[in-house]
């Protein structure tokens, strides 16, 4: 498993004001987009800052990476009541969090935001991923689909159980190795859903949200309606603009009961929180107050885990040189709400999500025409994933669309780990059309594929598009509640510059 090294350093009082600014922006980069207000100034003691974090190798060496200088960053907000060694947070902290005791909450990744920063820093796009999206998972015994938030905790529990069977008794070892497995699981699950590489990630704990809001002196928010969730999150706020302290800010981002648009409203609150934190840093004077910056550094080192090899100082310096970069907040689309095994879930279309994310990130997406050409290629489908019979189902669906029936089978040594499309001479147009149909799978010519043929390799990251699923499929259970459910509303994209007015949310 990945190594974990945690060091705590005290910032030297001799640092200059210029140094202070870059330190603050570097910290905020791990929580979201406030770093975009950075100045790009140098800091002579950057090693003290970067070496103080816990690092993780959960991304994996063989995972796909972005090209051309762009970078995709996954921000993971972990809803746990324990520290990195598995110890319960102090009672006084839990009381402030209004979050029960250390036995509650599990290890759900309740906040997931995927950032795309293009090479030219022209505009940052941030996709919030609703925590109740019902998605396929791999490598978790007993589960094929779960709420996306559960991919972390379920994998952690499975790995810890196996380690205990093997004789491991050290609770710190169990916690750290379990969490590392959880990180790898949530990164893989998100990557499989969105269809783009994840180059870096930052994980912040439940206490981290509280510590961050407290360290910046609280946050300003705006609510469209008054809320009273005193029984659960502790969120009791009037409508309109207001200032929240650390505990109130945590309740603001955690509330899930009584929201007009459920899980999707919660993602909009998280976006508003991040925007407000950035504005607080800019407006409060924290950027030039060394004692406040020392507290920010301590929060960062205590509450944040970074992917291995991510040098935050250099990252902040590079972004800072771009000035105030526009930011666009989006939320992944949800097809409908449903109830599965007694739990509220969001049903999503992975192919549609891949298309939307890739388009928003500026990646080339195959174009469609009103008069699509009649397919002429024979399509071979190889299944390297864990869903039995998937190749046959896809082949049948493609035959219904006019493609020739090809070889159906399992993957072999010529297939990679991830889903791809390769084609032979004369099959380029059909291959591009299939890439779009299947959610933007990578496509390339290959001398190993015969002329007039297309080869589709289905990895564990593949999910059958809704439009291709058999009408008799039972993959998605029908609702068990009576009456109709409201249609999901992800809302319009929110465009802002860090430091602008805080948006009003439900």
Brief overview:
This protein is α/β, with parallel strands linked by helices and 506 residues long. It contains 13 helices and 22 strands. An 8-stranded mixed beta sheet has the order 1-12-7-2-3-4-13-21, with helices on both faces.
Shape: globular
Radius of gyration: 23 Å
Distance between the termini: 41 Å
- Percentage of residues in helical conformation: 25-40%
Poorly predicted runs: 1-45, 472-483
Number of strands: 22
Please count the helical segments: 13
* Oligomeric description of these chains: single chain
Strand order of the largest sheet: 1-12-7-2-3-4-13-21
State mean pLDDT (0 to 100 scale).
Answer: 80
Biggest sheet features: 8 strands, mixed
Which structural class do you get from the secondary structure elements? alpha/beta
Question: Care to describe what's here?
Answer:
By secondary structure, the chain is α/β, with parallel strands linked by helices. It is 32% helix and 21% strand. It is built from 13 helices and 22 strands. The longest helix has 24 residues. It starts with 16 loop residues before the first helix and ends with a strand.
Topology:
Blueprint: H1 17-31, H2 46-50, E1 54-56, E2 71-79, H3 91-97, E3 108-117, E4 124-128, E5 134-136, E6 145-147, H4 150-165, H5 171-194, E7 200-205, H6 206-215, E8 219-223, E9 227-229, E10 235-237, E11 240-244, H7 246-254, H8 262-283, H9 290-303, E12 304-307, H10 312-320, E13 326-331, E14 336-340, E15 343-347, H11 350-360, E16 378-383, H12 390-400, E17 404-410, E18 420-423, H13 428-437, E19 443-445, E20 453-458, E21 494-497, E22 504-505
Parallel strand pairs: 1-12, 2-7, 4-13, 8-22, 16-17, 16-20, 18-19
Antiparallel strand pairs: 2-3, 3-4, 5-6, 7-12, 8-11, 9-10, 13-21, 14-15, 18-20
Helix pairs in contact: 1-9, 1-10, 4-5, 6-7, 6-9, 7-8
